[in-house]
Amino acid sequence: MFVRAGLAIAALTAPLGLLATAPAGAAEALSQCDGSRTVAVGGGWEVTTPGLWESTSVTCNLVYGDFPHRNPAEPFGDPAGAIKGLQQTLNYCYGAKIIVNGYYGATTRDAVTAVQRRTGLPADGIYGPQTRSAMNWRLHDPAKGIDSTNCYSPV
């Protein structure tokens, strides 16, 4: 579910120390992830990764987190939810031990950087389409109501 109301209020009350400073470069060419995309991967399994709200696109980044870095002219979507999904995956599949708080702070950026190093990508801490495709994800089977016990790289 995507949340339209309350995002700005929640973001304004967030401690500033949890927000990351965005590295310059490739991420700036990508849209900010502001939701999640669920993609069928076969055998009844699905994977949910950060994506673009009301779009099939997954070519986005999470380096900016949520407000104040988001474009105020486009206040819709739920980037905090997308970040929480990424944080949960980093914890479950990579043992990152991140507090799942919906902010792309230093610990989330460091965990993404570690995954990038592990997979041979440029270790810049920017979550984008290459990192998404290289990462392992926990799968979900909605018909059976179960999650996979292992992590896979289906995207």
Automatic annotation (TrEMBL):
UniProt cross-references to InterPro entries, sorted A to Z: Peptidoglycan-bd-like (IPR002477), PGBD-like_sf (IPR036365), PGBDSf (IPR036366)
SUPFAM superfamilies, alphabetized: PGBD-like
Signal peptide feature range: 1-26
Keyword Iron included in the entry's annotation: no
Entries under Pfam families matching the protein: PG_binding_1 (PF01471)
Residues in Peptidoglycan binding-like domain copies: 83-135
Keywords, comma-separated and alphabetical: Signal
The protein's name in its UniProt record: Peptidoglycan binding-like domain-containing protein
